[in-house]
Design brief:
The complex is a heterodimer of chains A (887) and B (107). Chain A is α+β, with helices and mostly antiparallel strands and 887 residues long. Helix content of chain A is 52%, strand content 15%. In chain A, 44% of the residues are buried. By secondary structure, chain B is an alpha+beta fold. Chain B has a 3-stranded antiparallel sheet. In chain B, helix 1 (9-19) packs across helix 2 (27-37). In chain B, 30% of the residues are buried. Classes of the chains: A alpha+beta (887), B alpha+beta (107).
Chain lengths: 887, 107
């Protein structure tokens, strides 16, 4: 027969007192061995002997294993950790649940922080990116906050500025590229020659543009992206010698941009802007300016230095009275913004909100683990009391408990970071493309450092509470009571209840937040767009100026294509527009109304305009409010018809019949002949910029209208089968002109979804966080009630034996759970009142204090609280009085 | 090493017990030896504290040896007496003898 093990409690106490050094283990080994010998003869006497000697050794632990000898801090820490691991492994279920809860919290924070880090914290990829700026215009006098630059002012600025190392202009667009095979559309940008040097991009293949190439007469050259070089050109080493056609014109590729530029959201091809330095385009505010500041110059200083140049430009070369009036009345001045702030501006707020949200999930997770630790510490009260009684100092026990918390937390955090690293690519795929710099997201050093800090902080948060609570001298009474009667101590229950209430409060805040976003989303999806996005397919066809010179050529092509599309089987209607609602922002035009002459020195009104073909409104199902739609006969030369939207009528012809009214576009050249256009119809307002944006005044022109050369039109066709129609569009275009590529075939539903994808992403993430919070809160409530019931088993048994109805027991337990949750709910609702204000700018037609959302979320929370309380309550009600007495 | 350290009575007994084992001896065996021969109960707490003190006085040295599974993997600490330890025991014995001289019939 093998001898039994020595008494466990004393054995454990011994190792706690002596530590895990080699001397200590040799002493423990001696006692074990001797116990085994003695137990062979007389087990009971051996146990008595062991208890006595263990206490004797423990009481002199300091003289047996003096701490000052060879126990460096590191060794002490290692010993503590080994001890903690051993203790935790004895309760694997607790260890697994606790560390997985931490993993959930830390993982969530790590994922979102990785995004925040890459998008908001890390500098842009450009060399010395902190000196890169965007240069904009502002005209507060006209209510224009921020708009692009005009080449004439820009070139004047560049010549006379002092704060910049260099500046450049860029205008995004699309070109048709023919490189051997069939033509295709590529994203492009017109740039001035210093563009690449301003960004700090150096070339491994070829070179950037020279100043000579950026002149009107120069031969056509292009720089392509590394992405395009590897894709379309198959990484051809001889690409620089290749002649390609860009929009039909022969073009020489002179350079391949560095690959890192691809990760900054740049286009695939750059072409020189080719301004004439003596007569650049004036008053054409459609160009984005970039600049590199001299070291030490702040963006606002640079803007101040540019400001007086506007007046100088007016004194030097600006003669057009309209342009001068625009600059003067508008109080025009240049704006200089740090490039990073511009790039991340829109997502800064939602990202910080998301980080705050997952931070709250982490706190809830910590509260849960703290609760678990409290429950567990209850079970170890007697051990603690023995330790304290035997002279174990309080700090040593606190240290041991904290070390256990730290081990749990570190293990959980490692799992969390691992899961975060694995799930990041998935999240990035889900995330909207409109979040900038997503391609830079990764788990880097800073993210790891933050995760490590989180794990330590979490450990302190959930480890310190039980450590301090259970080492109070008061707890010595535990020893006296044999470690049983003090467990249902009201003060300790209060601690657990507060933790659960705090969890409920945080869950309530998150629920209200995600509820408000969900409500906004529903409102947004049901917002009156002015058209019906269902069963609508769109495709873009751009006509090259080489073969389609005049507006009439474009109009002819558009008519033939629209007629062919409309004739496709199952197509209800087809049409085309220069600016697809939601997808594209229309341009603006200044105009004058017949019979209302402009006052000298005053600015003409500016409204948006777009070009459409007959059939467009029918295909979009935009109702004609008055008058008629365009007919193809309106496209004949000399017939200048327009359609306007209701907003335009309300603004300029309130109370009048707009049909038959005439307007003409204003220009800066007084000698130019500008034709009058007659209003033939009024359409319902369309939300051109998306469901969240206000309606603007809009004029619709026909494709042959003088004064514009829109060659890229989006075709829309309405019919039930998008797949068949996409093929129909392709074959119809091929039939008309085999060289024309088709860009972005997609449904209008997709366009609408894309416009709200950033919003829906925020909503989704917040929704997931709120659900996790709710589940963690429910688990917390459940475990606290279960534990309370298990402590009160005997009491409940007595009550039932004395005739209490089980339903009453059930009610009392559920009542307690609901009461705790109600307290948390009230606090959470108050917190939500304060915090939902942060959501203000994200919400759509929903008040931050929307009572319905608050009420609905409170109801959800209470139902969950009820369910979480019901299970332990039912167990309490079914306690058998006999069994409870026996135990 | 404390050269002029003196021995207490219990320390003397412990040193004698160690001296009986030329190849070194474990703490538990010292305890048993004392119990068996000196016929007194030996608190293990006092014993280990004393062994540590004797080591500090330079009368004992110890080495830690790994063991097999029979001790649950716990190492074994084996004590041996030093020259200073022997000298201290001898001096103690001389003092006892010299003080006992002439009063043997009383003892």
């Amino acid at each position: 027969m093998t001898a039994p093990n020595p008494p466990r409690l004393f054995r454990r106490m011994l190792s706690a007192r002596l530590g895990v050094g080699r001397v200590a283990r040799s002493v423990i080994g001696d006692l074990d061995e001797e116990y085994t010998d003695r137990a062979r003869a007389n087990p009971a006497a051996a146990r008595r002997w062991y208890r006595r000697e263990a206490v004797a050794v423990a009481l002199r632990a300091r003289s047996i294993v003096p701490p000052q000898r060879g126990d460096s801090m590191m060794r002490q820490l290692l010993a503590d950790v080994r001890m903690a691991v051993r203790t935790l492994l004895k309760q694997p279920r607790f260890a697994i649940v606790a560390s997985l809860t931490v993993a959930l919290g830390v993982g969530a924070v790590t994922v979102i922080f990785s995004v925040v880090n890459a998008v908001l914290i890390q500098p842009l990829r450009y060399p010395n990116a902190d000196r890169l700026v965007n240069i904009w215009s502002t005209a507060p006098g006209l209510g224009y906050d921020q708009f692009p630059l005009s080449p004439d002012l820009f070139l004047f600025f560049r010549k006379h500025q002092t704060g910049f190392e260099d500046m450049a202009l860029r205008q995004r667009g699309r070109v048709n590229l023919t490189a051997g095979q069939a033509p295709h559309v590529v994203e492009s940008a017109l740039v001035t020659a210093p563009y690449f040097s301003t960004l700090g991009a150096t070339f491994a293949r070829g070179r950037p543009f020279t100043a000579d190439e950026d002149t009107p007469k120069a031969a056509r050259v292009a720089v392509i992206s590394d992405r395009l070089w590897r894709g379309t050109f198959g990484a051809d080493q001889g690409v620089l010698a290749r002649a390609v056609r860009v929009d039909g014109e022969p073009t020489q590729i002179v350079g391949v941009a560095p690959d890192w530029l691809d990760r900054t959201g740049t286009p695939d091809m750059w072409l020189p802007a080719r301004f004439n330095p003596d007569s650049p385009p004036t008053g054409n505010f459609g160009w984005n300016g970039i600049g590199r500041l001299k070291p030490g110059v702040r963006p606002e200083d640079a803007a101040k230095q540019l400001e007086p140049l506007v007046r100088r430009a007016m004194e030097t070369y600006l003669t057009s009275p309209n342009y001068r009036a625009f600059l003067t009345n508008g109080q025009y001045r240049p704006l200089v913004n740090a490039m990073k702030a511009d790039i991340v501006g829109d997502v800064r707020e939602p990202l910080w909100i998301l980080l705050g949200t997952v931070g709250m999930v982490l706190l809830i997770a910590c509260a849960n683990v703290a609760n678990l630790c409290l429950v567990r510490a209850d079970g170890r009260q007697r051990e603690m009391a023995v330790r304290l009684a035997l002279g174990g100092n309080r700090s040593g026990i606190v240290r041991a408990l904290l070390t256990e918390a730290l081990v749990l937390s570190v293990v959980g955090s490692i799992v969390g970071v691992f899961v975060a690293a694995v799930s990041l690519p998935l999240l990035i795929r889900l995330a909207p493309a409109s979040i900038p710099r997503l391609e830079e997201v990764s788990v880097d050093g800073l993210v790891l450092a933050v995760a490590a800090a989180l794990s330590v902080v979490s450990a302190v948060v959930f480890g310190l509470v039980p450590a301090l609570r259970y080492t109070r001298p008061l707890m010595l009474s535990a020893l006296r009571h044999g470690g049983r009667s003090a467990t249902d101590h009201p003060a300790r229950n209060r601690g657990r209840n507060v933790l659960v209430a705090a969890q409920t409060a945080m869950a309530m805040v998150l629920l209200v937040g995600s509820g408000l976003l969900a409500r906004s989303f529903t409102r947004m999806m049901h917002a009156e767009l002015g058209f019906d996005p269902r069963n609508l397919l769109t495709a873009q066809v751009a006509l090259p100026p080489t073969s389609y010179r005049e507006g009439a050529d474009v109009a002819r092509f558009a008519q033939r294509l629209v007629e062919q599309l409309a004739a496709l089987p199952s197509v209800e209607a087809a049409g085309a527009t220069s600016d697809l609602p939601i997808a594209e922002g229309p341009s603006g035009t200044a105009f004058e109304i017949d019979g209302r002459p402009m006052e000298p020195g005053k600015l003409p009104p500016i409204v948006s305009y777009q070009i459409i073909t007959p059939g467009f409104f029918a295909a979009m199902r935009t109702p004609i409010a008055r008058g008629r739609d365009f007919a193809w006969s309106d496209l004949r030369a000399g017939v200048n018809s327009i359609v306007v939207n209701q907003q335009m009528v309300d603004e300029f012809w309130k109370g009048q019949d707009p049909i038959g009214k005439r307007i003409r576009r204003s220009g800066s050249d007084a000698n130019e002949v500008r034709p009058w256009f007659t209003v033939v119809g009024v359409v319902t307002n369309v939300r051109q910029a998306g469901p969240r944006e206000p309606v603007e005044e809009m004029i619709y022109f026909t494709p042959n209208a003088p004064g514009d050369d829109q060659r890229a039109l989006s075709y829309v066709i309405r019919g039930p089968n998008a797949g068949v129609q996409a093929d129909g569009i392709r074959s119809a275009v091929r039939e008309l002109d085999a060289d024309l590529p088709i860009a972005s075939i997609r449904t209008m539903d997709e366009v609408v979804q894309e416009s709200v994808v950033q919003f829906s992403f925020t909503m989704l993430t917040l929704g997931i966080a709120a659900s996790v919070a709710l589940v963690l809160g429910a688990i917390g409530l459940y475990s606290v009630l279960s534990y309370a019931v298990s402590l009160r088993t005997r009491e409940i048994g007595v009550r039932l034996a004395l005739g209490a109805a089980p339903s009453r027991v059930l009610r009392s337990v559920v009542g307690r759970g609901v009461a705790i949750s109600l307290a948390g709910l009230v606090v959470g609702a108050l917190g939500a009142v304060g915090l939902t204000r942060l959501l203000g700018s994200l919400l759509f037609e929903t008040a931050p204090l929307d009572p319905l959302t608050f009420a609905a979320m409170a109801a959800v929370l209470l139902v969950v609280a009820f369910l979480a309380s019901f299970l332990p309550a039912r167990r309490a009600a079914s306690i058998s009085p006999m069994e409870s007495m026996k135990n | 090493m404390a050269r002029h350290a003196t021995l207490g009575e219990f320390e003397h007994l412990v040193l004698l017990a160690v001296l009986r084992h030329a190849d070194g001896v474990m703490g538990s065996h010292i305890g048993r030896e004392l119990e068996a021969r000196a016929k007194r109960r030996v608190s293990r707490g006092a014993l280990y504290a004393t062994l540590d003190r004797l080591q500090q006085k330079g009368f004992l040295t110890w080495v830690i040896e790994p063991t097999g599974p029979d001790r649950g993997g716990h190492p074994r600490r084996v004590f041996t007496i030093t020259r200073a330890g022997r000298a201290a025991v001898r001096q103690y014995g001389r003092a006892v003898r010299s003080l006992s001289a002439g009063i043997e019939d009383l003892l």
